Amino acid sequence: MNKSQLIEVFSKRSGLKRYNAEFIIKEFFNAMTDALANGEGVEIRGFGSFSIREYDGYVGRNPKTGEQVEVAPKKLPFFKVGKELKERVMDKVTAQ
Fold first, then answer.
1. Per-residue confidence of the chain (96 residues) as pLDDT tens digits?
2. Do 58 and 68 contact (CB within 8 A), yes or no?
């Protein structure tokens, strides 16, 4: 499911007009993005939590040339699945 499909489903289930549903979904993701960019975590109970993980720099290798390359330290978003979501997905998988 992509963002457009999510907006469509949300619009139908909530009974909102598509442009209102689109506004809500975009604001939801903007708020999450802003929180993560500010170093805050985002927790949605039953779904999961988003946080920022810091990775140290290291010396890597260019796979094409074999040349050593310095990889800078970085901060990347990380998602940890919630218990309810994990169980629901596992129940679907095992039922098939």
1. 999 999 999 999 999 999 999 999 999 999 999 999 999 999 999 999 999 999 999 999 999 999 999 999 999 999 999 999 999 999 877 777
2. no
41-96 in CATH: which number? 4.10.520.10
Residue 33, beta-bridge partner list: none
Closest CA to 52 of 38, 64, 63: 38
**Count of Cβ atoms closer than 10 Å to residue 21 Cβ:** 20
Kindly report the pTM of this predicted structure: 0.76
Q: Which residue in 1, 89, 85 sits closest to 44, CA to CA?
A: 85
DSSP string, 28-48: HHHHHHHHHHTT--EEETTTE
Phi (first) and psi of residue 13, to 5 degrees: -70, -35
